[in-house]
Write a structure and sequence with these properties.
Elements (H helix, E strand, L loop, with lengths): L1 E6 L5 H10 L5 E5 L11 H17 L2 E6 L2 H6 L1 H7 L1 H8 L4 E3 L2 H9 L18 E7 L1 H6 L1 H9 L3 E7 L3 H6 L4 H19 L5 E4 L2 H5 L1 H7 L6 E2 L1 H15 L11 E5 L4 E2 L2 H7 L4 E4 L1
Parallel strand pairs: 1-2, 1-3, 2-9, 3-4, 5-6, 5-7, 7-8, 9-11
Antiparallel strand pairs: 10-11
The structure holds D-glutamic acid (DGL).
């Protein structure tokens, strides 16, 4: 049995990498749906269908738990799949399986509060506003999940979403660094102009952006903290698996990488952050 990690492409490897460090003996299967990437400009129904297909592939590969290491899939599809598909699918499969996301751990990290906590609305005057910029795909931005869920928990945090329609594709296609620097800079500038000043903190709300976190850090004023999804997700998964021993993680240290796209080596950006070349098999 194994832990599955799903993304439209290579972005989820940033989360996978941290999970592997946290659970070195567990067996992992990573699935990149590169034939259909990027997801961020697709209609919601397509994102739901593609995410369901990815989960099924990972459960068939022996995973008990699938982590959606993709904000777009997690914010658009996860609740739908948990409510309308998973209960029946579990019965068909005859074993306990679950799908977990990346948005809840990120919101817990951003608010410093457990997910169950919702703020009492007392209408008190907020003295100091903590301004949080969220860079994401258009589909994640359209879902407004970060604005809605953070607002329920913290009245002193204002969320400004900045959709970056071209960035995941550019990272997936290994675009030249100068082009990435320019596009990241334009988005940081755009959100700064909208806020009227620089944000106090930022979420890289697309796992692809974590691969170029250094460019975001350089474009933002010095010292603006980035909320790191890989760390937040690893912490949340450790707690979850501790509470749910019925989901088995395996103990062979297996690492499989599947793609619906072109098998073989991935590009150099991946190699740089991973520390070694990675070779993918057909899904
Ligand atoms: N890496 C994904 C995310 O976190 C998806 C990017 C895309 O396919 O557009 O949103």
């Amino acid at each position: 049995m194994a832990i599955g990690v799903f993304d439209s492409g290579v972005g989820g490897l940033t989360v996978h990498h941290r999970l592997v460090e946290r659970f070195p003996n567990a067996d992992f299967v990573y699935l990149a749906d590169q034939a259909n990437a990027p997801y961020g400009g697709r209609p919601g129904e397509e994102i739901v269908d593609l995410t369901r297909a990815g989960c099924i592939r990972l459960f068939e590969a022996g995973c008990d738990v699938v982590v959606l290491a993709c904000n777009t899939a997690a914010s658009v599809a996860l609740r739908r799949l948990q409510q309308t598909w998973l209960p029946r699918y579990r019965q068909q499969l005859g074993r306990p399986v679950n799908v977990l996301g990346i948005v809840v751990p990120t919101i817990e990290a951003a608010t410093g509060l457990p997910w169950e906590h919702e703020a009492e609305r007392r209408g008190e005057k907020v003295e100091k506003l903590d301004v949080l910029a969220v860079f994401s795909t258009p589909a994640t931005a359209r879902s407004r999940v970060y604005e809605i869920e953070i607002d329920k928990r913290r009245q002193d945090v204002a969320v400004f979403s900045e959709p970056c329609p071209e960035l995941a594709r550019m990272i997936e296609q290994n675009a030249p660094r100068d082009d990435l620097v320019r596009v990241v800079g334009e988005h940081v500038q755009a959100v700064t102009t909208r806020i009227g000043r620089a944000p106090d903190r930022a979420i890289l709300g697309c796992t692809h952006y974590e691969i170029v976190a250094d460019l975001f850090q350089a474009a933002l004023p010095a010292g603006v903290p980035l909320i790191r999804q890989p760390d937040a997700t690893a912490d949340a998964l450790a707690l979850y698996l501790g509470r749910h021993p019925e989901f088995r993680q395996g103990d062979g240290g297996g690492r499989r990488f599947l793609t619906t796209g072109r098998p073989g080596a991935q590009h150099s950006l991946v190699e740089t952050f991973w520390g070694a070349p990675l070779s993918f098999e057909p899904a």
